[in-house]
Structure to design on (569 residues):
């Protein structure tokens, strides 16, 4: 702004100088022209009076005064018929008739006449003044003076000096004035313009700026609040969220999206296709950019992701897409587990039912002898009991999965349950000559006795089934600072390291070839696992082939009911 004011002042000063120069030259030129004409008139009058009193030849007189006239004035004597009788510059005999000249014609008519003629070639102006003498002839005096351009050129040096001095002074004044004018504007605090001490004319503008500042501040505050709300929502989403433009460049992403796609960061202008180059991801993205909603299941690094992509429109034109990424691995694994469980249940149910059906058919058809019937009946009974146990275990697992039909947790004596399980399994242990050693103290936990009984019974039952003849089982029950630990250790066949992670799966058996001989449903440790989850306990498994297995369950310590409910709600 300072430069604009400076240039404006300089331009005005230059225009004023130019205008003044033109006016001064015009006035000066006019003044000089009038002055020159006045001098010609005076000289004409003097010569006329002298001729009226002169007794000799006019031509002799003209010759005598030629050098005395100012500015080399030209003298021309013209007869009454216009013939040039004498001229101080040219040969009179060769000059044309002057009766038609304006000043001569006017002198013959009125006694005097004047005129001026401009020569473009010589850039000069010639002034003529004529008077009529007593003898009827006309005396004409003439002289030349320069035009205004010649006058300007002759004065160019002083004019330039004056112009430069004036422009320099104008520049200095313009600089000081522009600085002084702009200084109050530079000192305006745009955050608080209403407090500025400046020109009165700017008061409405400053008030308007102040109002706009308040309006913008409110809008920015609302925008920041909405942005923070949006960020809080998206950053706390477990689902990944990506927003891209029509060139597939990432406009927005949340942390979950990068975490799910195993990406460190997204640079500005980076294509979303660089985050995942799978065919499934590219196809979903392509369909969304083309304006079509699409959903697909993507498998990435061993996990399952549900991709949902929708196009974003602006004036019916696709300008980008929104992609939501859901980790559905658990859902897919549960579905696979459900399918596997269904197949296993079908298989496990089919085996005893086939046996029962076969034995019953032999008896029905009379093929069996009377001596074989008790044997067949015993087999039917055993298979029926196996079937009942299997169905019972499935029901227990279903109840643990859905938390249905389960009583509320109460203060439970864990040592009492251990003693009960030992007494129930004592006969089975004696068959294999397995000794059971118990080292325990009375401890209580928050639990459901029925479930705890199933858990401990299954662990101890496995310790007997997979133990060696004349083996040992060590049971300990101890209370620590934060947990109550139940340990069941045997000297049995052990579990290979590769199988440790799978022994808690439903229907999984380490040695499938001996599973029928050993018995059981393959659901025992699954019940233990889900029972531990129900009681907020953790399971620790240590095993070595041919040396034995130890299972330790870490239960939370007992707390009063009010404290327990407060911490778990």
């Amino acid at each position: 702004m300072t430069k604009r004011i400076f240039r404006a002042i300089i331009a005005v000063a230059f225009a004023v100088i130019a205008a003044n120069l033109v006016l001064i030259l015009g006035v000066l030129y006019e003044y000089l022209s009038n002055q020159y004409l006045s001098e010609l008139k005076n000289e004409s009058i003097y010569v006329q009076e002298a001729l009226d009193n002169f007794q000799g030849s006019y031509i002799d007189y003209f010759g005598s005064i030629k050098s005395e006239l100012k500015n080399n004035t030209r003298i021309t004597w013209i007869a009454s018929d216009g013939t040039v009788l004498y001229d101080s510059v040219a040969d009179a005999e060769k000059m044309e008739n002057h009766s038609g000249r304006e000043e001569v014609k006017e002198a013959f008519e009125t006694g005097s006449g004047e005129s001026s003629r401009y020569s473009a070639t010589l850039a000069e102006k010639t002034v003529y003044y004529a008077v009529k003498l007593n003898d009827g002839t006309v005396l004409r005096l003439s002289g030349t003076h320069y035009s205004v351009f010649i006058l300007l050129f002759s004065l160019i040096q002083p004019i330039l000096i004056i112009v430069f001095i004036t422009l320099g002074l104008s520049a200095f004044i313009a600089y000081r004035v522009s600085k002084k004018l702009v200084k109050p504007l530079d000192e305006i605090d745009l955050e608080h313009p209403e407090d500025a001490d400046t020109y009165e004319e700017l008061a409405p503008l400053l008030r308007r700026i102040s109002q706009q500042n308040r309006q913008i501040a409110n809008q920015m505050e609302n925008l920041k609040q909405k942005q923070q709300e949006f960020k809080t929502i998206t950053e706390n989403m477990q689902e990944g969220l990506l927003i891209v433009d029509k060139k597939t460049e990432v406009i927005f992403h949340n942390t979950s999206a990068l975490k799910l796609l195993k990406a460190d960061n997204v640079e500005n202008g980076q294509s979303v296709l660089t985050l995942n180059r799978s065919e499934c991801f590219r196809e979903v993205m392509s369909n969304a950019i083309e304006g079509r909603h699409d959903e697909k299941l993507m498998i990435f690094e061993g996990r399952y992701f549900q991709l949902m992509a929708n196009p974003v429109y602006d004036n019916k034109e696709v300008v980008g897409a929104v992609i939501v990424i859901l980790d559905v691995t658990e859902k897919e694994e549960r579905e696979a587990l459900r399918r596997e469980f269904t197949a296993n249940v079908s298989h496990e149910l089919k085996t005893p039912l086939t046996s029962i059906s076969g034995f019953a058919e032999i008896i029905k058809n009379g093929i069996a002898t009377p001596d074989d019937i008790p044997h067949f009946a015993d087999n039917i009974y055993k298979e029926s009991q196996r079937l009942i146990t299997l169905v019972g275990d499935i029901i227990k697992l279903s109840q643990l999965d859905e938390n249905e039909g389960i009583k509320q947790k109460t203060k439970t004596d864990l040592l009492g349950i251990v003693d009960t399980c030992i007494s129930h399994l004592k006969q089975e242990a004696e068959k294999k000559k397995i000794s059971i050693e118990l080292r325990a103290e009375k401890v209580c936990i928050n639990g459901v006795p029925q479930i705890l009984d199933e858990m401990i019974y299954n662990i101890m039952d496995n310790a007997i089934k997979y133990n060696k003849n004349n083996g040992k089982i060590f049971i300990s029950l101890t209370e620590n600072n934060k947990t109550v630990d139940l340990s069941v250790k045997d000297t049995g066949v052990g579990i290979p390291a590769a199988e440790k992670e799978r022994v808690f799966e439903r229907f999984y058996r380490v040695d499938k070839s001996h599973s029928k001989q050993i018995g059981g449903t393959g659901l025992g440790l699954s019940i233990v696992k889900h029972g531990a989850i129900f009681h907020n306990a953790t399971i620790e498994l240590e095993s070595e082939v041919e040396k034995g297995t130890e299972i330790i369950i870490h239960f939370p310590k007992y707390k009063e009911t009010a404290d327990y409910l407060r911490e778990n709600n």
About this structure: The longest strand covers residues 303-314. The chain has five domains: 2-154, 199-235, 237-327, 332-387, 406-567. The radius of gyration is 62 Å. Confidence is low (pLDDT under 50) at residues 512-517, 561-567.
